[in-house]
Design a protein that fits this description.
single chain, 269 residues, alpha/beta, 2-enoyl-CoA Hydratase, Chain A, domain 1, 2 domains, 6-stranded mixed β-sheet, 3-stranded mixed β-sheet, 11 helices, globular
């Protein structure tokens, strides 16, 4: 696909997306965001992909926005109304790079190590499951460079770790450790080494990929809808969703396999 900043491979039903600028600690160029948006639309439409794991090449997961690349857009000499409107639309385009992770029907696992700074929190907050190596250092760094985080952290992180922690971390811009991230509930597993981290990510991805794909995608859809629309709207939504989809071939296979005391073989129908 001619990507500059990411690399993709697939093993079985699990897709792996690598942040692939290790010489720059995987700093996010402006083009990175459109690459991510395009790639996650591809993942969403590919029936062979059941789960996705995001990793970072080199010493860092990502240090966030590449300020050398983004600087001209942020510090242009034109401060008129047209330039400001252009910047607003440009920010919305960048947001889609993270939005498409969340919109993708396939569950996404982020496996962070080393520096997980700025845009790393935007990216990981858009994922379904987050793991980290004990060497990981996190930061919502934007306030330290006079920016309001604008690609998803302030909208998604409070739902993951609560308003108290999210506000403290966003307002101070301070670093926090992988152990802190575990205690807050930002990550669900803390691993000693990168090898252990990737094994754990694979283990979770394989567990997900072994389940009925329509049910897995339905869980992600219902949880996102319920988060954004409330408990009772979410209950009505899942009732309608199951009424439309519950009588599936995969459900019949699950029941048959249970009665025959064997593992089910799901076909996504």
């Amino acid at each position: 696909m001619g990507n500059e900043s990411i690399r993709v491979e697939q093993i079985g039903n699990i897709a792996y997306l690598y942040l692939n600028r290790p010489e720059k600690h995987n700093a996010m160029k402006i083009s990175f965001f459109s690459e991510m948006a395009t790639q996650f639309k591809v993942f969403d439409r590919d029936p062979s992909v059941h789960a996705i794991v995001i990793k970072g090449e080199g010493k860092s997961f990502t240090v966030g926005l590449d300020l050398f690349d983004a600087g001209p857009n942020l510090l242009g000499s034109d401060t008129g109304a047209a330039a400001r409107e252009h910047l607003r639309v440009h920010i919305l385009d960048l947001q889609e790079g993270m939005n498409q992770i969340e919109k993708c029907r396939k569950p996404v696992i982020a496996a962070g190590h080393g520096n997980c700074i700025g845009g790393a929190i935007d990216l990981m907050s858009a994922c379904d499951i987050r793991l980290a190596c004990k060497d990981a250092i996190f930061s919502i760094r934007e306030t330290r460079i006079a920016i309001v985080a604008d690609v998803g952290t302030l909208q998604r992180l409070p739902h993951i770790i609560g308003q108290g922690w999210a506000r403290e971390l966003a307002l101070t811009g301070r670093d926090f450790t992988a152990a802190d991230a575990l205690n807050m509930g930002f990550i669900t597993h803390l691993c000693d080494t990168r090898e252990e981290l990737y094994r754990k990510a694979d283990e979770i991805a394989e567990e997900i990929a072994a389940n009925a794909t329509l049910a897995v995608q339905g869980v992600k859809d219902v949880m996102n809808f319920s988060r954004d629309n409330g408990v009772y709207s979410g209950l009505e939504y899942v009732a309608q969703k199951n009424a439309a989809a519950v009588m599936s071939e995969d459900l019949a296979e699950a029941v048959t396999a249970f009665m025959e005391k064997r593992a089910p073989t799901f076909k996504g129908n």
